[in-house]
Fold:
Amino acid sequence: MGGRLEDRRALVTGAGQGMGRAIALAFAQEGATVVATSRTLSKMQDLPRLSEHITIAALDVTDRIAVSQVIAETGPFDILVNCAGWVHNGSILDCDEEDWQKSLDQNVTSAFRTMKAVLPQMVERRYGAIVNVASVASSITGVANRAAYGASKAAMIGLTKAAARDVIGTGVRINALCPGTTLSPSLQGRIDGSEDPQEMHRTFISRQPMGRLGTVEEMAAAAVYLASNETAFMTGQILIVDGGQTL
Structure:
Protein backbone atom coordinates (compact mmCIF):
# COMPACT_ATOMS: atom_id res chain seq x y z
CA MET A 1 0.00 0.00 0.00
CA GLY A 2 2.63 2.58 1.06
CA GLY A 3 2.31 5.96 2.73
CA ARG A 4 0.20 4.95 5.73
CA LEU A 5 2.84 6.30 8.13
CA GLU A 6 4.02 9.19 5.99
CA ASP A 7 5.68 12.05 7.93
CA ARG A 8 5.72 10.04 11.17
CA ARG A 9 8.78 9.40 13.27
CA ALA A 10 8.93 6.00 14.96
CA LEU A 11 11.09 4.33 17.59
CA VAL A 12 11.22 0.52 17.48
CA THR A 13 12.91 -1.46 20.24
CA GLY A 14 14.11 -5.03 19.75
CA ALA A 15 14.82 -4.36 16.07
CA GLY A 16 17.91 -6.55 15.90
CA GLN A 17 16.01 -9.55 14.63
CA GLY A 18 12.64 -11.19 14.22
CA MET A 19 9.48 -9.23 14.74
CA GLY A 20 11.16 -5.95 15.71
CA ARG A 21 13.29 -5.97 12.59
CA ALA A 22 10.28 -6.74 10.40
CA ILE A 23 8.33 -3.90 12.04
CA ALA A 24 11.14 -1.41 11.43
CA LEU A 25 11.27 -2.37 7.74
CA ALA A 26 7.47 -2.31 7.36
CA PHE A 27 7.21 1.10 8.99
CA ALA A 28 9.92 2.49 6.69
CA GLN A 29 8.11 1.04 3.68
CA GLU A 30 4.97 2.87 4.80
CA GLY A 31 6.84 6.17 4.85
CA ALA A 32 7.88 6.54 8.49
CA THR A 33 11.29 7.73 9.58
CA VAL A 34 12.44 4.94 11.87
CA VAL A 35 14.99 4.79 14.66
CA ALA A 36 15.64 1.07 15.08
CA THR A 37 17.21 0.03 18.38
CA SER A 38 18.72 -3.11 19.82
CA ARG A 39 21.16 -4.02 22.56
CA THR A 40 23.43 -5.42 19.82
CA LEU A 41 24.17 -2.76 17.21
CA SER A 42 25.85 -5.23 14.83
CA LYS A 43 22.55 -7.02 14.24
CA MET A 44 21.12 -3.88 12.63
CA GLN A 45 24.04 -2.75 10.49
CA ASP A 46 22.27 -3.63 7.24
CA LEU A 47 19.00 -1.84 8.03
CA PRO A 48 20.09 1.63 6.82
CA ARG A 49 21.25 0.00 3.59
CA LEU A 50 17.87 -1.67 3.15
CA SER A 51 15.98 1.58 3.71
CA GLU A 52 17.09 5.19 3.65
CA HIS A 53 14.33 5.89 6.18
CA ILE A 54 16.00 3.84 8.93
CA THR A 55 18.74 4.89 11.34
CA ILE A 56 20.03 2.65 14.10
CA ALA A 57 21.00 3.14 17.72
CA ALA A 58 22.30 0.79 20.39
CA LEU A 59 19.91 0.60 23.33
CA ASP A 60 19.64 -1.67 26.33
CA VAL A 61 16.02 -1.21 27.37
CA THR A 62 16.81 -2.43 30.89
CA ASP A 63 19.07 0.62 31.39
CA ARG A 64 16.88 3.49 32.59
CA ILE A 65 19.49 6.18 31.93
CA ALA A 66 20.28 4.87 28.44
CA VAL A 67 16.58 4.84 27.54
CA SER A 68 16.19 8.48 28.55
CA GLN A 69 19.37 9.53 26.74
CA VAL A 70 18.65 7.76 23.45
CA ILE A 71 15.08 9.04 23.27
CA ALA A 72 16.17 12.58 24.13
CA GLU A 73 18.86 12.47 21.43
CA THR A 74 16.80 10.87 18.66
CA GLY A 75 13.24 12.07 19.34
CA PRO A 76 10.63 13.40 19.40
CA PHE A 77 8.54 10.48 18.20
CA ASP A 78 5.03 10.08 16.85
CA ILE A 79 5.12 6.28 17.23
CA LEU A 80 6.70 3.92 19.75
CA VAL A 81 6.83 0.16 19.35
CA ASN A 82 7.95 -1.85 22.36
CA CYS A 83 9.16 -5.12 20.87
CA ALA A 84 12.25 -5.92 22.93
CA GLY A 85 11.79 -8.98 25.10
CA TRP A 86 13.02 -12.31 26.39
CA VAL A 87 11.41 -15.74 26.62
CA HIS A 88 12.09 -17.85 29.69
CA ASN A 89 11.33 -21.51 29.03
CA GLY A 90 10.01 -23.27 32.09
CA SER A 91 7.17 -23.77 34.52
CA ILE A 92 6.91 -21.90 37.80
CA LEU A 93 8.86 -24.77 39.39
CA ASP A 94 11.69 -24.28 36.90
CA CYS A 95 11.84 -20.50 37.30
CA ASP A 96 14.16 -18.99 39.88
CA GLU A 97 13.87 -15.41 41.09
CA GLU A 98 16.62 -14.22 38.77
CA ASP A 99 14.75 -15.51 35.70
CA TRP A 100 11.51 -14.08 37.06
CA GLN A 101 13.01 -10.64 37.56
CA LYS A 102 14.74 -10.71 34.17
CA SER A 103 11.42 -11.55 32.50
CA LEU A 104 9.65 -8.65 34.14
CA ASP A 105 12.49 -6.21 33.53
CA GLN A 106 12.97 -7.01 29.85
CA ASN A 107 9.36 -7.64 28.91
CA VAL A 108 7.35 -5.00 30.76
CA THR A 109 9.49 -2.66 32.87
CA SER A 110 11.38 -1.79 29.69
CA ALA A 111 8.09 -0.63 28.13
CA PHE A 112 7.31 1.38 31.26
CA ARG A 113 10.65 3.17 30.77
CA THR A 114 10.24 3.96 27.09
CA MET A 115 6.62 5.05 27.50
CA LYS A 116 7.55 7.37 30.36
CA ALA A 117 10.22 8.89 28.13
CA VAL A 118 8.09 9.49 25.02
CA LEU A 119 4.68 10.29 26.49
CA PRO A 120 5.34 13.87 27.69
CA GLN A 121 6.18 15.13 24.20
CA MET A 122 3.38 13.08 22.63
CA VAL A 123 0.87 14.57 25.07
CA GLU A 124 2.25 18.05 24.45
CA ARG A 125 1.89 17.62 20.68
CA ARG A 126 -1.48 15.89 21.17
CA TYR A 127 -0.56 13.04 18.89
CA GLY A 128 0.99 9.63 19.39
CA ALA A 129 0.55 5.91 18.82
CA ILE A 130 2.18 3.32 21.06
CA VAL A 131 2.19 -0.36 20.15
CA ASN A 132 3.19 -2.75 22.92
CA VAL A 133 4.05 -6.23 21.71
CA ALA A 134 2.56 -8.61 24.25
CA SER A 135 1.52 -12.21 23.52
CA VAL A 136 -1.42 -14.57 23.68
CA ALA A 137 0.65 -16.30 26.37
CA SER A 138 -0.49 -13.79 28.98
CA SER A 139 -3.84 -12.98 30.57
CA ILE A 140 -5.41 -14.26 27.34
CA THR A 141 -4.40 -17.89 27.76
CA GLY A 142 -2.03 -20.07 29.73
CA VAL A 143 0.79 -21.75 27.83
CA ALA A 144 2.87 -24.56 29.29
CA ASN A 145 6.42 -23.65 30.36
CA ARG A 146 5.80 -19.92 30.05
CA ALA A 147 5.14 -18.95 33.69
CA ALA A 148 7.45 -15.93 33.90
CA TYR A 149 6.95 -14.95 30.27
CA GLY A 150 3.15 -15.20 30.49
CA ALA A 151 3.09 -13.17 33.71
CA SER A 152 5.25 -10.45 32.17
CA LYS A 153 3.12 -10.24 29.03
CA ALA A 154 -0.07 -10.13 31.12
CA ALA A 155 1.51 -7.19 32.91
CA MET A 156 2.22 -5.60 29.52
CA ILE A 157 -1.47 -5.83 28.67
CA GLY A 158 -2.39 -4.32 32.04
CA LEU A 159 0.10 -1.50 31.54
CA THR A 160 -1.27 -0.85 28.05
CA LYS A 161 -4.84 -0.53 29.28
CA ALA A 162 -4.00 1.60 32.33
CA ALA A 163 -1.75 3.99 30.42
CA ALA A 164 -4.28 4.27 27.58
CA ARG A 165 -6.89 5.34 30.11
CA ASP A 166 -4.46 7.84 31.67
CA VAL A 167 -3.90 9.68 28.38
CA ILE A 168 -7.21 8.99 26.64
CA GLY A 169 -8.09 12.66 26.18
CA THR A 170 -4.72 13.78 24.84
CA GLY A 171 -4.69 12.39 21.30
CA VAL A 172 -2.31 9.57 22.28
CA ARG A 173 -3.39 5.98 21.66
CA ILE A 174 -1.86 2.89 23.27
CA ASN A 175 -2.68 -0.62 22.09
CA ALA A 176 -1.19 -4.09 22.45
CA LEU A 177 -0.37 -6.58 19.71
CA CYS A 178 -0.70 -10.17 20.91
CA PRO A 179 0.92 -12.63 18.51
CA GLY A 180 0.53 -16.36 18.60
CA THR A 181 3.49 -18.62 17.88
CA THR A 182 5.60 -16.83 15.30
CA LEU A 183 8.61 -18.19 13.45
CA SER A 184 11.51 -15.95 14.38
CA PRO A 185 15.25 -16.41 15.01
CA SER A 186 14.48 -16.58 18.72
CA LEU A 187 11.95 -19.38 18.28
CA GLN A 188 14.16 -21.19 15.78
CA GLY A 189 16.99 -21.06 18.30
CA ARG A 190 14.81 -22.69 20.95
CA ILE A 191 13.75 -25.36 18.46
CA ASP A 192 17.31 -26.07 17.36
CA GLY A 193 18.49 -26.23 20.97
CA SER A 194 15.90 -28.82 22.01
CA GLU A 195 16.61 -32.52 22.37
CA ASP A 196 14.44 -33.31 19.35
CA PRO A 197 14.16 -30.25 17.06
CA GLN A 198 11.75 -31.94 14.63
CA GLU A 199 9.38 -32.94 17.40
CA MET A 200 9.65 -29.49 18.98
CA HIS A 201 8.78 -27.90 15.63
CA ARG A 202 5.75 -30.18 15.27
CA THR A 203 4.67 -29.28 18.81
CA PHE A 204 4.70 -25.58 18.06
CA ILE A 205 2.72 -26.08 14.86
CA SER A 206 0.21 -28.39 16.54
CA ARG A 207 -1.14 -25.61 18.74
CA GLN A 208 -1.97 -23.47 15.71
CA PRO A 209 -5.34 -24.57 14.25
CA MET A 210 -4.37 -23.06 10.91
CA GLY A 211 -1.59 -25.66 10.72
CA ARG A 212 1.38 -23.31 10.48
CA LEU A 213 3.34 -20.75 12.44
CA GLY A 214 2.84 -17.04 12.02
CA THR A 215 5.43 -14.97 10.18
CA VAL A 216 7.18 -11.85 11.42
CA GLU A 217 5.89 -10.02 8.35
CA GLU A 218 2.29 -10.78 9.36
CA MET A 219 2.94 -9.37 12.83
CA ALA A 220 4.63 -6.32 11.31
CA ALA A 221 1.54 -5.69 9.17
CA ALA A 222 -0.60 -5.75 12.32
CA ALA A 223 1.77 -3.27 13.99
CA VAL A 224 1.46 -0.93 11.00
CA TYR A 225 -2.31 -1.09 11.35
CA LEU A 226 -2.17 -0.20 15.05
CA ALA A 227 0.26 2.66 14.44
CA SER A 228 -1.66 4.15 11.52
CA ASN A 229 -4.62 6.49 11.46
CA GLU A 230 -6.78 3.53 10.48
CA THR A 231 -7.04 2.83 14.21
CA ALA A 232 -7.54 6.44 15.28
CA PHE A 233 -10.64 5.45 17.28
CA MET A 234 -8.95 2.51 19.01
CA THR A 235 -7.07 2.63 22.30
CA GLY A 236 -6.44 0.34 25.24
CA GLN A 237 -7.23 -2.69 23.09
CA ILE A 238 -5.50 -5.98 22.33
CA LEU A 239 -5.15 -7.22 18.75
CA ILE A 240 -4.78 -11.01 18.67
CA VAL A 241 -3.02 -12.49 15.63
CA ASP A 242 -2.58 -16.16 16.49
CA GLY A 243 -3.81 -18.47 13.75
CA GLY A 244 -6.77 -19.46 15.92
CA GLN A 245 -4.62 -20.64 18.85
CA THR A 246 -6.91 -19.10 21.45
CA LEU A 247 -10.28 -19.88 19.87
In short: Strands lie at 9-12, 33-38, 54-58, 79-82, 128-133, 172-179, 182-183, 214-215, 238-241. The chain is about 45% helix and 15% strand. The longest strand covers residues 172-179. Helices lie at 18-29, 47-50, 64-74, 97-125, 147-166, 185-192, 197-206, 216-227.
